[in-house]
Amino acid sequence: MQELGSVTILITKLTCFLILFTLTTDVPRSGEAAQPPALTEARDDEQTKSGMIVRVAAVSFVPAKFDLIGNADRLEDAFRHAKGGGAKIAVAPEGALDGYVVNEIIAGEAPAEKMQEAAVPIDHRIIQRFQHLARELEMCLVFGFAELIEDDVFNCALFIDHDGRICGKYHKMQFAEGYDSSWWFNRLGNRSRAFDTPYGRCGLMICNDRWNPLLARIPVLDGAQFLLIPAMGSRNKSQDEAVLSRARENGVPVVEANVGVTLIVDGDQIAAVDRLEEGATFGKITIPPAANPQPADRDRAEREFLEWRKEEMKRRYQRTQDRLRKQAADGNGN
Q1: CB 262 within 8 A of CB 235
Q2: Euclidean distance between the first and final Cα of the chain, in Å?
Q3: Which CATH number belongs to the domain containing residue 185 in this structure?
Q4: What integer pLDDT is reported at residue 20 of this predicted model?
Q5: How many domains does the chain have?
Q6: Is residue 104, in this structure, part of any structural domain at all?
Q7: Is the residue at 41 inside a domain?
Q8: Residue 258 near residue 233 (C-beta atoms within 8 A)
Q9: For residue range 11-63, what is the model confidence (pLDDT) as tens digits?
Q10: For the chain, which residues score pLDDT lower than 70?
Q11: Inside any domain, residue 34
Q12: 229: enclosing H helix or E strand
């Protein structure tokens, strides 16, 4: 009888423990799915041994010259389309807000003062509009615009994350048209750095930069795990090969949004490409694991580029002036 009493007491204690455990444990109710742990970042990427797989979009449209509001509306529409296609990062062209107007000014087709209508500081309400949009869409946005800094204007690419935070920006460092120190409306950038994003460290390039291996190498040496290129330039196959080469040389994926060419490079090959002036190209990139920055090598590569650029921009500037004089002479019938 004593042994039976002990067993009864033991069963009673176990029953009480189970009841207490049930009451204090987060068990889903009948018909209710268990909730996974909260994520710290709004994304649904896939992690593999090779890296993080992220769906991206490269969008294209032809922005109107000097039409900030109209271009902003079209850019928003393009980003909404990218969201509808499931993109987590969407990249738009160079000069998406201003219409890339420097060539018109250089050619004398528009006065330099008109740049004041197209350039905005980074804290301008039109930039804030896209910070709000990024939060609404829960998507990272990348696009080009003319950035006003005091009395100078820079060709800028901007990365806004899904929380609306500006993660980084970049000023174009190589111009096809060359450079003259009087060009306050088109200043050269002097520094390229990778920056942290929700998907790893990113490096930015703009259009003509893609032809120069050093301008891809510098941000990668600074830890960039992927490169993004807003552009408005050459649409031929050689530009595709240049973008592919930059990816292969550095072992990173590249997304280019060029007006008329939207291109995604992943795994050392072109994963997707379209040649439409209006539209979006979707694909996935595999962002490799983080690598340690190599600041000494980065700075060495940057110094090498800047030294080369001194004479190259003079040469290109002279070539541009010769071309414009010839066009003027031809137009006058001389």
Answers
A1: no
A2: 125
A3: 3.60.110.10
A4: 37
A5: 1
A6: yes
A7: no
A8: yes
A9: 444 444 433 333 333 333 323 333 333 323 444 578 887 899 999 999 999 99
A10: 1-44, 332-334
A11: no
A12: strand 226-231
